[in-house]
């Protein structure tokens, strides 16, 4: 590309237990500019076997015991050494042209720290989510972000010492989500240049898991309370009371005990306050 340095790509794959068998489907044919870092969590030693398909020179497998996707992503990030990183999972598909799109964007825009791309679904399935129609810069979080949409400047991220908050994310007993939102907001606070790019970068089946969870499911209430505290601090305690009062008619209409709703919000806020780093 006009004599510019060849950019290298690290694809950071998080997987757990026997799902490591799925990782081989994520890999492209070897390319000199792509390296895969597989963060494999295991809950039993019986799951530690590494499939032969992953024993390639362009694949690094790092195994850690336990659960928690944020911990897994941080483990992979610590091992990244390329120019551009992609967070991903074991149920996605890449194509060479997606990697080429990614490289071209960062070649043309070297001042960008993070780019958010689109997820392509299978033919006949709905769009993964509603995306903006044109490229835009994020000054604050404007829409829901999925981790597998995130491409980032590895050096900038590691120099800023920004990682996923390991209290949030799938695999955690209490706080099952919002880790992507918090990650992007932490980057914005650090002054990162972040843009949305209306180009597909990865393929994933259409899913709507969030729609299967009740609006007042205690897991969602915990996440909402914890996220509020992570963002706004101790004022989240007052907001839990105010939010409960504001939602009182809706809670009663859905036969949700307001005291239980308040308890879950408050318990999550207190958890964040107690576990915040000093």
Low-confidence stretches are: none
Count every helix, treating DSSP H or I runs of 4 or more residues as helices: 8
Distance between the amino and carboxyl termini: 46 Å
The major β-sheet equals: 8 strands, mixed
Structural class: alpha/beta
Helix content: 25-40%
Tell me what portion of residues adopts beta-strand conformation: 15-25%
SSE order: EEEHEHEEEHHEHHHH
The strand order across the widest sheet is: 3-2-1-4-7-5-8-6
C-alpha Rg (nearest Å): 20 Å
Number of strands: 8
Form type = globular
Average pLDDT, all residues: 89
Describe this structure in words.
With 278 residues, the protein is of the alpha/beta class. It contains eight helices and eight strands. An eight-stranded mixed sheet has the order 3-2-1-4-7-5-8-6, sandwiched between helices. The radius of gyration is 20 Å and the shape is globular. The protein starts with 8 loop residues before the first strand and ends with a helix. The model has no long low-confidence stretch (mean pLDDT 89).
Give the SSE map.
Layout: E1 9-16, E2 34-42, E3 59-65, H1 69-79, E4 84-89, H2 96-108, E5 114-120, E6 136-137, E7 150-153, H3 154-159, H4 179-189, E8 194-203, H5 218-232, H6 235-246, H7 248-253, H8 258-275
Parallel strand pairs: 1-2, 1-4, 2-3, 5-8
Antiparallel strand pairs: 4-7, 5-7, 6-8
Helix pairs in contact: 5-6, 5-8, 6-8
């Amino acid at each position: 590309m006009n004599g510019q340095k060849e950019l290298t790509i690290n694809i950071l794959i998080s997987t757990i237990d026997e799902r490591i068998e799925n990782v081989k489907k994520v890999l492209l044919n070897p390319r000199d500019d792509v390296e895969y870092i597989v963060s494999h969590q295991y809950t039993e030693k019986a799951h530690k076997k590494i499939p032969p398909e992953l024993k390639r020179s362009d694949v690094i497998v790092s195994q850690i015991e336990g659960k928690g996707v944020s911990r897994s992503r941080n483990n992979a990030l610590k091992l990244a050494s390329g120019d551009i990183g992609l967070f991903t999972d074991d149920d996605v598909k890449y194509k060479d042209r997606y990697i080429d799109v990614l490289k071209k964007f960062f070649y043309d825009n070297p001042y960008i720290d993070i780019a958010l791309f689109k997820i392509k679904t299978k033919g006949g399935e709905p769009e993964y989510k509603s995306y903006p129609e044109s490229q835009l810069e994020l000054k604050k979080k404007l829409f829901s972000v999925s981790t597998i949409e995130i491409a980032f400047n590895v050096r900038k991220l590691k120099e800023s010492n920004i990682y996923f908050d390991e209290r949030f994310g799938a695999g955690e007993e209490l706080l099952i989500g919002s880790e992507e939102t918090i990650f992007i907001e932490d980057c914005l606070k650090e002054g990162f240049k972040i843009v949305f790019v209306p180009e597909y970068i990865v393929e994933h089946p259409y899913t709507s898991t969030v729609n299967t969870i009740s609006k007042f499911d205690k897991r969602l209430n915990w996440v909402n309370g914890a996220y509020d505290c992570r963002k706004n601090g101790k004022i989240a305690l007052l907001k839990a009371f105010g939010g409960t009062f504001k939602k009182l008619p809706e809670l009663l209409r859905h036969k949700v005990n307001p005291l239980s709703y308040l308890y879950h919000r408050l318990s999550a806020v207190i958890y964040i306050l107690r576990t915040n780093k000093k």
